[in-house]
Amino acid sequence: MIDLKENPDFLNSFLEYLTGILNKSPNTVKEYNYDLSHFLKFIMHHYKLSDEEDIKKIDIHNMSIDVLKKITLNDIHSFLYYLTDTFHSKPATRARKAASIRVFFAYLTQKAKILDINPAQGLETPKMEKRLPKYLTLEQSEKLLEVAHSTSDENMERDFAIITLFLNCGMRLSELVGINIKDINFSDKKLTVIGKGNKERTIYLNESCMKAIEDYLKVRPHDGVKYNSRDALFLSKRKERISNRMVQEIVKRELGKAGIDMNKYSVHKLRHTAATLMYQYGNTDIRALQVLLGHESISTTEIYTHVDNVQVKNAVESNPLANKKF
To answer: Using CB atoms within 10 A of its CB, is residue 293 exposed (0-12), middle (13-18) or buried (19+)?
Structure first.
């Protein structure tokens, strides 16, 4: 929960713009608030406008617009350096904060007309290391499904359906938790989810997903379900919509049962797995994969176009000159 009383008016106006005009999700708005309040507190410290030594404890609710007008690109660079030097922040973290600052100042200059000059105009995105996503192999994925389906746990059908949807559809954790029964079109074998930025998209369900959902619905509780969870697809033992944390615990437990390192893989890694399997084995078009995963940019989806050593070896072996001997 954001405490608006701790923010200066111009920051709260920006947050209202994100919610009311750009339709950003509560979580996204919360991240913007965290990033920007941290930045503004740093500025107060940087300009020696506060005696508080702990930057995160600096009071910014009375910060004036005159301070904003003094901020330069060098000040923003100093903030990003401070994140690296003090917190050893990863490039991805600094890139996110830089993006937040860029959008914030664009709003102040172009929309709110509070500033005449945008100090973030030339702000570059911190260069990030290119890392291939971690994912389960096909054999590990099959093992995970097999183990999840063979357990004698009373919630077997629910937990198996959760694992099945993650591995087949590549949906996000929040998307799975938010599924309502009314979102599922059983005749057309598809469901509607709400992704990042409150964007709605359609996910088509294959036979494995349909059967897993139908098997779970046969045993899903109907009586005593909490009023605000009556339409939720996945329920907890308390008969309310399952939480993000419980789903994470379910996935972690099933990974352990399958003999897969629980510390190396997570719910989000199952999303990576689904995307990788579809690309490697299904010859899925990259743009179709982009739509399926709900990526705003094709560049985000391109991380799944990586190839493993076997594919590289096969590429060499498939060369028409491979068997030519002289």
So the answer is: buried
